[in-house]
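fwd from M.: "can u put these together and see what the complex looks like"

so here's what she sent:
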Amino acid sequence: MDILRPLLLRAVTLFGVLIAVLVLLAASLGATGFSDRILEATVNEEIRGLRSSLAGSIRDPDELERTLQTRAAELRASYGLDRPWWVRIPGLVTRVLTLDLGDARSIRSYSGSTRIADIILERLPNTILLLTTSTILVALIGIAAGVWLSTRIGSRIDRFITYLAAISNALPTWWLGILLILLFTYRLGWLPSEGMYSVPPPEGGWPRFLDLLRHSVLPVMTLVLVSIGPSIYSVRTLTLNIAQEDHVNVARAKGMPERVVLWRHILRVAAPPIVTGLILGLAGSLGGSILVETIFNWSGMGRLYYDAIAGTPDEGLIVALTFMFTLIYVLARLLLEFLYLVLDPRVRYEEAVGRPA
Amino acid sequence: MRRLSDVLPELLSSAPGKAGTVLFGVLLLVAAYVVLTFPADFGPARWSNPALWGDYPKTAPPVWTNLFGANRPEHRILEARTPTRTDGKVKTYVLPLDYQASQPPTFLSFSVGDVTYQAHPPTVEAVLIRPDGGAVRLYQTVPGGPQPGETPPYRRNFQEPLRVQLETEPTAVEAAYNFLSEKYDPHLNFDEVGRQLPLALFGTVVDGRFVVLKGGYRLEAKVRLDNPQDSVGLVRFVVGGAVYGLMGTDSQGRDLAQGLLFGLPIALAIGLAVSTLSTLLGTALGLVSGYAGGPTDLLIQRAADIVNNVPTLPLLIFVVFVLGAKLWLVLLMLILFSWPGLTILVRSMVLSLRSSPEVEAARALGCSTGRIIAYHLFPHIAPFIFATLIFSAPGAILAEAGLSFIGLGDPTLPTWGQILEQGFRTGAVFNGYWWWIIPPGLLIVLTALAFMLISLGLEPILNPRLRRET
């Protein structure tokens, strides 16, 4: 119970973020007349279909026009086109929440569906796969290398990591990806630079998995390389700061084994801020994954963004994608907040004493 | 207490700080040079104007690549504005060219411009004089005659020269064939000459195959004027190179060096504008939030919490997509999304300073809130604010570059991200046009790195605990 209350508070904030973003989306779509155009196009599409199907049964051209016009007016009313855009915001927000955004212009799902929900849900796991793999790798390597480095402060490798962290902050993820393609694909010819599977994809579970693994090496490597420097550096600094605290000295003075000191007195204390670091890095890796998918033609939602913008822009898809990315971000943050609460007893304690008895 | 004036010595005392300051200074100087010498409408008027780049080689690597590999021809633009010699009515413009590359030119073009005549247009004839003494007539043309209702003097081709692409010009093919077959090889294949005209014009025939002939060439443009007052103000002969300039060209023949130079002041402006304004906003809100407390504090902190939790890039993509690709809009969005972190930090600093003896004394003396904030709170956090300002600049530069890279860059201002985007979209990575891909990214890194190195030098200010290590 104690742990749930602060978590609930965070959940409410994050839900507020989601709604704020959605209202922003709806308002900017409405105020610029974008949504009117999308809906108008949908109405026209339906009327065109109706015209060809009715042309056989209604012979009189005047009557046909009349029927179509009444139908168009009905459709406009049902889409809310007869009302101003701000009245429609709640409707649009609900439709985005349920991904009920109609059909994509030219992009199809692999099964051939034109529904935006189908296309996006098909791409979602691919994005999650890329994002989680790289985030977990960064966290693991960062913690292991950071702790190890904190015992070698001032050494050559320590200075190297310090500079690497600074350079990483100045390195565009996507450009690093391009460099890796130039090196590993075109110069060395070791790794594929495009897609998730070979064409045609290999048969069977294992060969297919290995093929996916091969294709994911470069994108994952790109995402890991740009965030590994800062990750190691921050863990190293945190560990170092805590290792200088009095309680660590006391533990050592008591003659505790170094391993116990490290795990129980340093890492246990460093865990919450390390998670905070992960939370802060999340926005960066999300943005990075959008661009990395674009570079490597990884058929996730980031690449979909690029495809939806290039050529004739597809408004429905872009709205849906913006929402989905916000959703992923908010959910991932909630997950990390939960982890934070589990790791940091102080939050629970304060919450417990703060409540009236 | 650390003052703002302590920042510079602190910065210059560390190696990265020194390196960053020097790098930043160099970048500022180059940016100042660009701002002073480039036209403000460089984007639409030059960079995005294909007509200007017709006489440039397409996707040519930089000239200095010749140091490492093949002896590829440099790009040569030969121009004359006044005649070299005059024989009565015939004026000759001589354009000398020393050709030493082991490969033929990639293309040849000839242009005539700034033509003025009284009654009849002049006739222009281009002849290539080869090192072996051959004279090959490449082309003959007459600028447009008088239009009905026009009065003399007639002016022709002032805006856009009369331009001809020579390697597909039948006159040149025939003349080259006649000369080569007579002098070198009577069995020469006519179609072969047409297919490889630049090589035929700049080569000889050995065992039935063309070989580049090095040596001194010259193009003579013979202009026959009808009236002594008539004139031709521009004759241009372009020998298309396989390498170009310091940075090479893109697939439209654009000089990448120019585009890259123009991108520098934009990148610096983006970084500085966004970081300065978002730092100001963040500091102001943090000061107010921390000092005022109460409902104001709560409101600002809730707002910071929400904005802090918004993923920037997707929203940026969306807003730019809906409202149009304008640079100021991107900057505005970046500012609006980047203040919360600083606000939360400044607030916590103010909270601890608020109960300090200094502030309490000031309050007891009856200082106004504004005065307390300006004289007793702000100076304490100023160095920290300054360090944050520098630290947040690279993020803005990278965000704009990323946005440009997915095709949402401001089309009126060519940025490094856009150059990369065009390269990526047209397959420069696939084709290995590294000079189109690597320099723009490297410049982004270098610019962002200048800020990062400076902020590394300011690290003791950002994180005072680190001083204990040394």
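replying to her w this: The CA atoms of residues 359 and 409 of chain B lie 48 Å apart.
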